[in-house]
Design brief:
Shape: globular
Helix content: 10-25%
Structural class: alpha+beta
Radius of gyration: 16 Å
Number of helices: 4
CATH architecture: 2-Layer Sandwich
Number of domains: 1
Number of strands: 12
Order of helices and strands: EEHEEEHHEEEHEEEE
CATH class: Alpha Beta
Largest sheet: 10 strands, antiparallel
CATH topology: Alpha-Beta Plaits
């Protein structure tokens, strides 16, 4: 799951840093949460065209996600402070730990890839799972996930890095904090 809050070009991103520093730990013990990466992009840094706060979640249970969104578990603070952003959510297809799994992630990448019309989506997902395995073995990778949006027929490749990767495609984010109360409970490999 991810929502993106794009902020004005002249927005002081120290406000987001302070928000995460003072509120981020509230998710450190959240039931049903595998991982929440508090992500930020700053205009002009790392090639980012925008200022953006864009947390990314890997849920261990749908109950946890629902409690967060509807049960007063945290999303209300986003709505109160920034308005109601669209929340993207996907079907998890795979998750792998990387060689830097024990390190604290400092960077993240997200790459989306359309699944072409007329192509067997099962074959595309199978190929993407093979790519996930290769990417997860890359030096510096903390963890990597593959998700599918069957409404848009799109793949989402998400990777946490111990440090900024020398070369990585997709959107690049700074990781401000990671809450991972049930990270060890996330099933590894394909999700079926």
């Amino acid at each position: 799951m991810q929502y993106e809050i794009t902020l004005p070009a002249d927005y002081d991103m120290k406000i987001i840093r302070e928000r995460v520093a003072t509120r981020g730990r509230a998710m450190d013990g959240f039931g049903g949460l595998g991982l929440k990466a508090f992500l930020m992009r700053e205009r002009g840094v790392g090639g980012s065209p925008v200022n953006q706060y864009a947390p990314f979640y890997l849920w261990d249970s749908v109950d946890g996600m629902n409690r967060f969104l509807w049960g007063g578990g945290g999303f209300r603070g986003i709505v109160d402070d920034f308005g109601r952003p669209g929340v993207r959510h996907w079907t998890g297809a795979g998750f792998e730990r990387g060689p830097a799994y024990g390190a604290t992630p400092r960077a993240a990448t997200r790459r989306t890839e359309p699944i072409a019309v007329g192509v067997d989506p099962a074959g595309v997902v199978e190929s993407a799972l093979e790519e996930l395995g290769r990417r997860a073995r890359t030096e510096g990778v903390h963890a990597a996930a593959l998700a599918v949006d069957p409404g848009r027929w799109e793949l989402v490749h998400f990777t946490l890095w111990a440090d900024w990767p020398a070369a990585a495609d997709g959107d690049r984010y700074e990781v401000l904090h990671v809450s991972a109360p049930h990270l060890h409970d996330l099933a590894r490999g394909r999700q079926w």
